[in-house]
Amino acid sequence: MQVLPIFKESTLKCLEEYIDVDILNSIEDDDYIDILKTNYPFATLDIFKAKLENNSLALDKLSSEYFRLGEEGKYISFISDIYLKNNNSCIIHTGMLNANMSNNIYVMSELDLIDKHIFLNLLIKLYPKKSQYFVIDDIDLLRMIIRGILREYFQAELYFVVKPIIIFSNFDMSLPICCKKQEDYIFYEKLANKNDLFFR
Fold this sequence. Notes:
This protein is an alpha+beta fold.
């Protein structure tokens, strides 16, 4: 019988060797997006090449659950590729395991069946946890998190540290990303394009 995947506890300290401390400190600031845009290679990962205007017909697509679910595979493929390039490891910063239990019950009711099993296992083994940093070393666990982020059930940052990149949760399938180096930004932009996604 396969054992369900689980987070391994981590700390902010373990990121400091790989991600600039200035980046990590910026994330604690309310205006972190503006700070990161100014100081680091930064973009928004999106299914559209350019920011949508208020009167764009494409906005109607984003309100369609059918459309959104159909686009999830692109993000899962791209972030899974990043995971593989980073030695099958990712650090997640999330408050999901110390969230209100009624919120977690709602989230679980909305998840796909396999994701329900994974999420329930996390809650059984780890809830409540004061720590907000965990290592993800299982691809199924990562994919559950990605789906939860895209469906706006989870707020989290995903840190990949071998070839550093941070992916932030956000709304409307537009995920801010930040790299430490321009060469990594260029590498990941090409990888996104291969998955029919864009940095804008």
